[in-house]
């Protein structure tokens, strides 16, 4: 959570075998944003899931303040869900998706041997 863009930008992370989310000439899919999203497949899928053109505008991940969670990380995982996808999932709109996110998050925390903290749900 320290860098908005990957320091070493020499790898374009273009998987030419990915025909569902093909690379756009001149675009680079190196790590950006709070989770350092990488690869054309991940940019394409993330863009489709949350509503931005990940393949043509991968820089959106680093530039769009609406998807920036840095300012709420210390408020718990629920605050990050709210910041990223709250309009679509929180407030009882899609509780199954919220619970799945919490499950993934707590599973990773357990694997790393860290506490997931308070405020897990939006």
TrEMBL record:
Top EC class, one word: hydrolase
A molecular function GO annotation: chitinase activity
Enzyme Commission number(s): 3.2.1.14
One GO term (biological process): cell wall macromolecule catabolic process
Keywords in alphabetical order: Carbohydrate metabolism, Chitin degradation, Chitin-binding, Disulfide bond, Glycosidase, Hydrolase, Polysaccharide degradation
Catalysed reaction, written as an equation: Random endo-hydrolysis of N-acetyl-beta-D-glucosaminide (1->4)-beta-linkages in chitin and chitodextrins
InterPro entries per record: Glyco_hydro_19_cat, Lysozyme-like_dom_sf
Pfam family, one: Glyco_hydro_19
Domain Glycoside hydrolase family 19 catalytic: from-to ranges: 2-70, 75-122
CDD domains in the cross-refs: chitinase_GH19 (cd00325)
The protein's name: chitinase
């Amino acid at each position: 959570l320290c860098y908005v863009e990957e320091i070493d930008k020499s790898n374009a992370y273009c998987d030419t075998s990915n025909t569902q989310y093909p690379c756009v000439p001149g675009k680079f899919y190196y790590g950006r944003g709070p989770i350092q999203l990488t690869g054309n497949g991940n940019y394409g899928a993330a863009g489709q899931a949350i509503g931005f053109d990940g393949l043509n505008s991968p820089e959106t991940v680093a530039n769009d303040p609406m998807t920036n969670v840095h300012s709420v990380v210390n408020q718990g995982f629920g605050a990050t869900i709210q910041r990223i996808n709250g309009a679509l999932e929180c407030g009882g709109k899609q509780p199954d998706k919220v619970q799945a996110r919490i499950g993934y998050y707590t599973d990773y925390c357990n694997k790393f041997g860290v506490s997931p903290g308070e405020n897990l749900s939006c």
